[in-house]
Write a structure and sequence with these properties.
Layout lengths: L16 E2 L19 E8 L9 E8 L4 E5 L6 H8 L7 E6 L2 E2 L5 H5 L2 E4 L11 H5 L1 H5 L4 H14 L4 H4 L9 H12 L6 E5 L7 H18 L2 E5 L3 H7 L2 E6 L3 E6 L1 H6 L4 H7 L3 H4 L16 E2 L5 H11 L5 E3 L5 E3 L3 H5 L14 E3 L4 H11 L3 E5 L5 E6 H12 L48
């Protein structure tokens, strides 16, 4: 039930090359991909003569508009590989092709302004407001103040932060999850075709991590960037990735495939051990809430006559109503008993609603409902808009269907490879991408990063 399609490939320990025939990008939007393809060609990174390479003769093709997860043990070279894409770390040998253009020798600072970059805790500049952090690269690119302000508003809305509330705050006034959202907004500010993410959700609590993962999935479904993300968490890779590259020591890719096929057919014992026990349970990370039937629910508005709304709930045979704000986002979920005690529906927002995204996994939905002890959860779509209600019964029926689902046939590396499409990115004439202002925490040099 995972949305990935296309051929699957693995590379054995004696091969450092991973290629695949990419799927059609933009399927979720009906448009061409806004991302750019990436080719890492025979790239090696050595830290000093005579030392073992951190990355050794790596070739990797990444299709435009999809999310690729780099996973593997500490020290395997996955972060080094990520940082060579935007040349925070300079490759010793090999070529980097971005959108069909060799970027190995161009000015590194200019390259980093064309690639979004997100690190743990957002990497925000503490002396700048949220708006100034987001607008930093557009300002460097010469955008007008009006255009920057409009872009800040748009991106704060995209990452589910109210612009009026958050634009003038400083990073110290934000929670960890809010800082990470601003970090993502900043990375997207100049509309980059490629977004690099280095353990982006590793510094937040599990509940916040789940929400941030869901928001990233929704953002990607809308924008169709090329995302390359490093994680130590295989469950996160299954949830977020269209493709997963499993790294071993020396940046050898031992399997490069869809999450579904890696779970069903690990290439060797190393991959099987990395997946760990419970591969069948991890399959729940492949099915999305948006793939199951939702209950429409009874909808109300603040200020509405509560007794009239109660009559609609009774007529529908339900036990509650969902109250939406002017942007169609859930505010409250009063029960019939609650409505019976009201004259009009209040304007207050309940911060503890059991919420899941259409792109949440069924596993996440089940966890949310169990924690809330409701047996139901409200489902949000892009930008937090209401989509419906999911129930435990719906999830259990979907799990039964998932267990009967058989993944496609496993295909070894080397078959069905082809040219990766390069897509035009809107706004390219204005420097259509950005390097994060994580320069505050990430020096642009050969710092010896080996993770």
């Amino acid at each position: 039930m995972h949305s990935n399609t296309g051929s699957s490939h693995a590379a054995g320990s004696d091969a450092h090359t991973a290629t695949q025939e990419p799927t059609a990008s933009g399927a979720g939007t009906g448009q061409g991909a806004k991302g750019a393809s990436i080719l890492i060609e025979n790239v090696t990174k050595r830290y000093g003569a005579g030392k073992k390479p951190a990355v050794d003769q790596l070739t990797l093709e990444i299709p435009a508009g999809q999310t690729i997860m780099f996973v593997g043990p500490s020290g395997c070279g996955k972060t080094t590989t990520l940082k060579m894409i935007n040349r925070l770390i300079e490759p010793t040998e090999g070529r980097l092709i971005l959108g069909g253009k060799d970027v190995t020798k161009i000015n590194g600072d200019k390259l980093r302004r064309t690639i979004g970059y997100v690190i743990q805790a957002g990497g925000l500049l503490p002396h700048l407001t949220v708006a100034a952090n987001i607008g930093l690269v557009p300002k460097m690119l010469g955008w007008s103040k009006k255009r920057i302000a409009e872009r800040v508003e748009e991106l704060l809305d995209l990452v589910s932060l109210d612009p009026a509330t958050y634009r003038d705050r400083y990073p110290r006034e934000l929670s960890g999850g809010q800082q990470q959202r601003v970090g993502v907004a900043r990375a997207l500010a100049a509309d980059p075709p490629v977004l690099l993410m280095d353990e982006p959700f590793g510094a937040v609590d599990p509940i916040t991590r789940q929400r941030l993962q869901d928001e990233l999935i929704n953002i990607q479904n809308e924008l169709q960037k090329t995302i390359v993300c490093v994680t130590h968490d295989f469950d996160e890779a299954v949830k977020l990735g269209d493709w997963i590259a499993v790294f071993d020591e020396g940046a050898q890719i031992v399997q490069y495939d869809t999450p579904e096929r890696i779970l069903a057919n690990p290439a060797n014992d190393f991959v099987a051990n990395f997946i760990g026990s419970g591969a069948g349970l991890k399959q729940l990370g492949l099915a999305r809430v948006g793939e199951v039937d939702l209950i429409p629910g009874v909808l109300g508005r603040p200020g509405q006559d509560a007794q009239e709304l109660l009559r609609h709930v009774d007529m529908a045979g339900l036990n509650s109503a969902v109250i939406l704000d002017e942007r169609e986002r859930p505010m409250q979920w009063p029960s019939k008993d609650d409505l019976g005690r009201m004259t009009t529906v209040p304007h207050e927002v309940n911060p503890d609603l059991p919420l899941v995204s259409t792109r949440s996994t069924l596993n996440d939905a089940l966890d949310t409902m169990l924690v809330a002890s409701t047996g139901e959860a409200i489902v949000e779509g892009p930008r937090g808009r209401y989509e419906g209600i999911i129930t435990v019964e719906t999830v259990m029926n979907a799990i039964t269907e998932l267990r009967s689902h058989k993944p496609g046939e496993y295909t070894p590396v080397g078959n069905n490879t082809g040219e990766i499409p390069v897509s035009e990115v809107s706004g390219a004439d204005q420097g259509s991408s950005e390097e994060t202002s994580a320069a505050a925490t990430e020096p642009w040099n050969d710092g010896g990063e080996r993770s």
